């Protein structure tokens, strides 16, 4: 496949698996606009602490969230660059032009986190 970027299928699948879970999507929706402490996320979502911690761990491992510690509290926020990369992956699979976000394609996934940008759609 001349001229096409190399694809990280395993990393891309890992990213999509992290997103493809109802509880994790609920958590991401709770923190999409602002950072929140674990207690706030628990209150908003109704997810009990043990399950919440487990799902936040999956989101951290997939680098879909960033964290900030303040004393004993940990605050979570959606990692927007990672979400843009996930969106670019879906755009590539759908064959839609991601031209609406010119800076998103150039933002690569941090190493060690798994997925790389899946493909750049050229027209």
Automatic annotation (TrEMBL):
Show the SMART domains listed in the entry. Answer: HTH_ARSR
Q: Where is the HTH arsR-type domain?
A: 4-101
Q: Which UniProt keywords apply?
A: DNA-binding, Transcription, Transcription regulation
Q: What Pfam families has UniProt attached to this entry?
A: HTH_5 (PF01022)
> Could you tell me which CDD domains the record lists for this protein?
HTH_ARSR
The organism is Novosphingobium album (ex Liu et al. 2023)
**Per the record, which residues fall in region Disordered?**
95-114
Write down what this protein is called.
Metalloregulator ArsR/SmtB family transcription factor
Q: Which InterPro entries match?
A: ArsR-like_HTH, HTH_ArsR_DNA-bd_dom, Metal_resp_trans_reg, WH-like_DNA-bd_sf, WH_DNA-bd_sf
**Entry's NCBIfam families?**
HTH_metalloreg
């Amino acid at each position: 496949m001349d001229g096409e970027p190399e694809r990280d299928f395993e990393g891309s699948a890992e990213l999509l698996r992290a997103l493809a879970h109802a509880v994790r999507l609920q958590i991401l929706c709770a923190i999409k606009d602002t950072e929140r402490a674990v207690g706030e996320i628990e209150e908003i979502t109704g997810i009990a602490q043990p399950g919440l911690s487990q799902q936040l761990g999956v989101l951290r491992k997939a680098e879909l969230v960033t964290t900030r510690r303040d004393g004993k509290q940990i605050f979570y926020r959606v990692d927007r660059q990672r979400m843009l990369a996930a969106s670019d992956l879906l755009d590539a699979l759908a064959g839609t032009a991601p031209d609406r976000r010119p800076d998103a394609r150039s933002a690569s996934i941090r190493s060690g986190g798994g997925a790389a940008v899946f493909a750049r759609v050229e027209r």
